[in-house]
Amino acid sequence: MGNSWATFGRDLHLDLTGPGGLRAALLHALRDAVRSGRLTPGTRLPSSRSLAADLGIARNTVADAYAELVAEGWLSARQGSGTRVAERVLPRATPASRRTPGPAGHPDRPRFDLTPGTPDVSAFPRTAWLAAARRALTAAPSEAFGYGTPSGRPELRTVLADYLARARGVRADPDRIVICTGFMQGLALLSRALGTGRLATESYGLGFHRDVIERAGLRTVPLGVDEHGARTEELSALDDLRAALLTPAHQFPTGVPLHPDRRAAAVNWARATGGYILEDDYDGEFRYDRQPVGALQGLDPDHVVYLGTASKSLAPALRLAWMVLPDRLVDPLLAVKRTGEWQSGQLEQLTLAEFISSGAYDRHLRGMRLRYRRRRDQLAAALADRAPHVHVSGIAAGLHAVLELPPGTEQSIVQAARWQGLALDGLSSFHDPAAPTPPRDALVVAYGTPPDHSFAGVLDALIRALPPGE
Fold first, then answer.
1. Residue 333 pLDDT greater than 80, yes or no
2. Where are the beta strands (DSSP E) in 363-470?
């Protein structure tokens, strides 16, 4: 039989097999393509001449098949419009794995996601980003459309060096900046570059960060966290320690900044041992009560690796993050990255470079700070008015707050929140099981995620889920 495919502006695979001859096979293939959704309502089909030529069959066979499917209601044909898939055909079956969000009151179908990790993506600056992309594409050299280099586009690294120095107090030059597809890739690369030994992680943090480190061959050891941040004075008592992963500006998830004495203790340990501090500055741009806490990296660029990302400031979908490395780590890390790691898209890098250098990034951040601060204030005011017995902390910066709970109540309140249509995390879900101290009961509420129009309803649902006061 002839070719079993046709191309008419978009690809279409037709399998002309089965009993009954070519006409029957073509009818079955076209019905199946419409029924399965591969040909959607309104899709224009090729002319009978074109499809016959592509399939290597007689034109009359195709014309007869089209006519029969029009008569059956699968296709429609109008003069000047060609043959198209009919607008009203049998509904396509929905895969069983897809679930439609249900109403509030069903514990398995939350309406609002208050779990931390995502900004308000509805506020992505589409118009400004598109304008930056056009300018970047217009000016892009031809080689920018190739595969790229492991370190990333020089245009973005140059712009980042200036921006991070100005906004975060980071000391860097472009040659020590490496672009990656996200914080997770950066952490994995660093862990592999460090080799064997142990890496300290904060006793409250993300479990999959520990998993990434351990898959790279390092062992993790918990570092205690209290109201002053990570207990960095404990670092000197840990043997075979290569590095420590910290969130100094805004501890995740407790929300406290690292105390100045502990910042100094972390740097002193790294200097004394030759180890590294891996600084996760995941939301350092968002501080509301005073100027942002400067990056720890500014105290010692030779022993602190700075990791930043556009995931919170813009959107996770960009898959853009960066590392500012000590000189002695640049070559080992790039050697690891050359072994087949994915590179960030070059056009996205050029667009971000233009977005920052044009001032659009600063304008966007200023606008988002105001938006997130309003939400934080709304949350704090609602709690003070309707649940004054619930203490809220960690709200001087970032996109989430911590709501303290009576001991032993966390799980029941997380479940109550689900009944109110809210997806929430308890603080205990971020606690390292290997830590010697037990977790405390609290909720981690990401007020930055819901869009503005739904936030009042989110607060109402949250208040209903909280325990009553005495």
1. yes
2. 392-393, 401-404, 422-423, 425-426, 442-445
Is residue 245 within 8 Å of 200, Cβ to Cβ? yes
Name the H helices within 169-215.
183-194, 207-215
For the stretch 272-302, pLDDT in tens is: 999 999 999 988 888 887 766 789 999 999 9
Cα 377 from Cα 455, distance rounded (Å): 12
Closest by CA to 200, choosing from 247, 150, 259, 134, is 247
User: What is the CB neighbour count within 10 angstroms for residue 433?
Assistant: 10
Backbone Cα Rg of the chain: 28
Contact present, 155 and 174 (Cβ < 8 Å) = no
| Element at 52 (helix H, strand E) | helix 48-55
What CA–CA distance (Å, rounded) separates 197 from 219?
Answer: 6
User: What is the Cα–Cα distance from 460 to 392, expressed in whole angstroms?
Assistant: 16
**pLDDT 10s digits, 363-408:** 999 999 999 999 999 999 999 999 999 999 998 889 999 999 999 9
DSSP state of 170: -
Containing H/E element for 349? helix 346-357
Which amino acid type is present at position 233? Answer: E
Phi and psi at 395, nearest 5°, equal -110, 10
pLDDT of residue 9: 42
* Amino acid of residue 215: R
Residue 93 has pLDDT above 80, yes or no: no
- Report the candidate in 391, 379, 385 with the shortest Cα–Cα distance to residue 448: 379
Does the structure show a pLDDT above 90 at 176? Answer: yes
pLDDT of residue 71: 82
Task: Name the token pair of 144.
Answer: 């920018």
How far is the CA of 313 from the CAs of 324, 339, 468, in angstroms? 18, 30, 36
Q: Look-up: residue for tokens 């999959």?
A: 208
Phi, psi of 6 (to 5 degrees): -145, 145
* Rounded alpha-carbon distances, angstroms, from residue 99 to 108, 109, 117, 130: 11, 9, 22, 33
319, 345 Cβ separation under 8 angstroms: yes
pTM of the predicted protein model:
0.80
